[in-house]
Specification:
The protein contains eleven helices and two strands; from the N terminus they run ββααααααααααα. The protein is an all-alpha fold. The chain has two domains: 32 residues; 213 residues, MetI-like fold (Orthogonal Bundle). α4 packs across α10 and α9 runs parallel beside α10. The N terminus and C terminus are likely disordered.
Length: 279
């Protein structure tokens, strides 16, 4: 018996050739038009900023010089370390609390009745309005207050996506499992958790972005420490290149963290990337 044929355009599976999955990010990074677009934007930015000569709008090359200067400054790394303490701890707490609450709220009515009012409040309340309350309750220069705000920023998204992941599982699968004698633990382990995992990972990625936002906002509005302290410092000294450079570094860190979560997602839920986009 000869070996089954395969080609470069697909992957051999038990049922035949499966088309490769489409990755928009891989396509964008591999396309020459992406780099042409970046060059075009940088050129337009350079020309307009040079002609406008605004005090807090640097040129594109000035921003790049600011990024290089910041990378070589130990004070910048110390500021990022201070900020990332609240980011890491707060995000871990948000995930550790948000996923179980979201899963339980989707499965049990009593838990949903308890969680839903508080979740609605967190979704509609401007988070900046909580900062004066945190100052009075936890102190103006408290790590606990920064961690708490990061948790408040991230946890609603984690809860909502975890709950949605369980609810999108086909109820027929649950009924079939219970009819064959599966207990609640087996239903969770074999049906609900695998089915909800893609939505859970999406919630983690979105929550991570909101956690970075909360980390910066609380340092800008409450305490001039870490990254927020750098931004306020360079803004007050009208050092536009360094100011924009800090923002670029924050964006790069956020993109790196989101990419890390995507890698973890491919390891724990590889079936979520088998979808083929078709016309």
């Amino acid at each position: 018996m000869g070996s089954a044929p395969s080609n470069r355009s697909g992957t051999l599976t038990g049922g035949g050739i499966r088309p490769p999955s489409f990755s928009l990010r891989a396509y964008a990074l591999g396309s020459a038009w992406t780099y042409r677009l970046i060059t075009l934007i940088g050129t337009i930015w350079e020309v307009l900023a040079s002609r406008a000569k605004l005090l807090l709008v640097p040129t594109f090359t000035g921003t790049l010089r600011g990024v290089v200067q910041l990378i070589g400054d130990p004070r910048v790394w110390k500021a990022f370390l201070i900020s990332n303490q609240s980011l890491v701890v707060g995000f871990v707490v948000a995930v550790a609390l948000g996923i179980p609450l979201g899963l339980a709220a989707a499965r049990y009515r009593r838990v949903e009745g308890f969680v839903d009012p508080y979740l609605s409040i967190l979704l509609v309340t401007p988070m900046a309005a909580l900062i004066p309350i945190l100052i009075m309750a936890l102190g103006i220069d408290s790590l606990a207050s920064r961690i708490f705000l990061v948790v408040v920023f991230a946890i609603p998204v984690v809860i909502v996506n975890s709950r949605a992941g369980v609810r999108q599982v086909d109820p027929g699968l649950i009924e079939m499992a219970t009819s064959f004698g599966a207990g609640e633990r087996e239903v969770w382990r074999k049906i609900l958790l695998p089915g909800a995992l893609p939505a859970i990972m999406t919630g983690i990625r979105l929550g991570l972005g909101r956690a970075v936002t909360g980390m910066v906002i609380i340092e800008l509005l409450m305490v001039a420490a870490g990254i927020g302290g750098l931004i306020l410092n360079y803004q007050g000294r009208f050092e536009a290149g360094l100011l924009y450079g800090v923002i670029v570094l924050v964006v790069l860190e956020a993109l790196a963290l989101v990419s890390l979560v995507r890698i973890i997602e491919r390891r724990v839920a590889p079936w979520t990337h088998d979808t083929v986009l078709r016309e």
